[in-house]
Specification:
Elements (H helix, E strand, L loop, with lengths): L1 H27 L9 E7 L2 E5 L4 E2 L2 E2 L4 E4 L2 E8 L6 E3 L6 E4 L3 E5 L7 E3 L4 E3 L5 E4 L4 E5 L8 E6 L4 E6 L5 E6 L2 E3 L7 E4 L2 E3 L8 E3 L8 E4 L1 E3 L5 H33 L5
Antiparallel strand pairs: 1-6, 2-5, 3-4, 7-22, 8-21, 9-10, 9-13, 9-17, 11-12, 12-13, 14-15, 15-16, 17-20, 18-19
Length: 267
């Protein structure tokens, strides 16, 4: 019995250590543009049934039965895709999505398409719009090229990118930003650098113009901040710590019972 207690308590401590890791990652990214926090979901493990509910006992049905669980484990990490707040930056190539959708990204080295909510755009040496990171510039899809001589870059709510050439008063259209949506965005694979990759669980990308078919609109000169709420995460951190302590108390109690049994003497 006490061995089962030790194993159940250990499984609970292990599960809550995962939750602690998730909370720490959320807090570490509280200032990351477009970051979406995650939460841990748990499930109970296999049960040992000593008497099944409804079992015949002395001519009558057992109303409840006797079952003992064997602990818990991490079932999934659920990504919270609620929108973060918008922060004004005043930078022409900063774009926030207001509503559902992701920007489409293509790695210049090939590979699967990637998706992001962090609209920190830049121009590479060829004038193409890219999402820059510490290591590489990834092309916005569809590709949009803005000459280095362009002035007054404008991005409309429906994703139309325009610019003005020096010495002219009219705007020249450079291209159209499209957004991707998913039936199950929680099924996207987090790959780091504010990027997601589609999986069979997420379904295929549904592309459309901003503001069309349920896709959000764009807001130039703004960025979407992280949707992590530090106060809530700190409260969760305290709860996780206390849950680990409670499981450690179960572990201690099981150990004390085993010690008591080992010290028994036969007279």
């Amino acid at each position: 019995m006490s061995l089962r207690t030790l194993n159940s308590a250990a499984s609970g401590m292990e599960a809550f250590m995962y939750e602690l890791d998730i909370t720490a990652n959320n807090l570490a990214n509280a200032g990351t543009t477009g970051f979406k926090g995650s939460r841990a979901e748990f499930e109970d493990l296999f049960y040992q049934h000593y008497k099944v509910p409804g079992q015949q006992t002395n001519g009558s049905l057992t109303p409840t039965g006797i079952s003992v669980g064997l602990g818990s484990r991490l079932r999934a990490t659920q990504v919270d895709f609620r929108e973060g707040n918008l922060e004004e930056t005043g930078r022409a190539l900063d774009v926030a999505i207001v509503g559902e959708g992701f920007f489409q990204v293509q790695d210049p080295n090939g590979g699967n398409p990637l998706y992001t909510r962090a609209g920190t755009l830049s121009r590479n040496s060829d004038g193409n719009l890219v999402f820059s990171s510490a290591n590489i510039g990834r092309l916005l899809q569809p590709t949009i090229n803005i000459p280095q001589t362009a002035l007054d870059i404008a991005i409309s709510a429906n994703g139309l990118v325009s610019y003005r050439e020096a010495g002219t008063a009219t705007l020249t259209q450079a291209g159209q930003i499209e957004l991707a949506r998913f039936i199950n965005p929680e099924g996207l694979l987090q790959v780091g650098e504010n990027l997601y990759e589609l999986t069979e669980a997420s379904g295929q990308a549904i592309t459309s113009l901003p503001g069309v078919d349920g896709a959000g609109t764009l807001k130039q000169n703004f960025l979407e901040t992280s949707n992590v709420e530090p106060v809530r995460e700190l409260v969760g951190l305290i709860k996780t710590q206390r849950n680990v302590e409670l499981n450690s108390e179960s572990l201690k109690a099981g150990d004390q019972m085993l010690q008591l049994i080992n010290n028994l003497r036969r007279f």
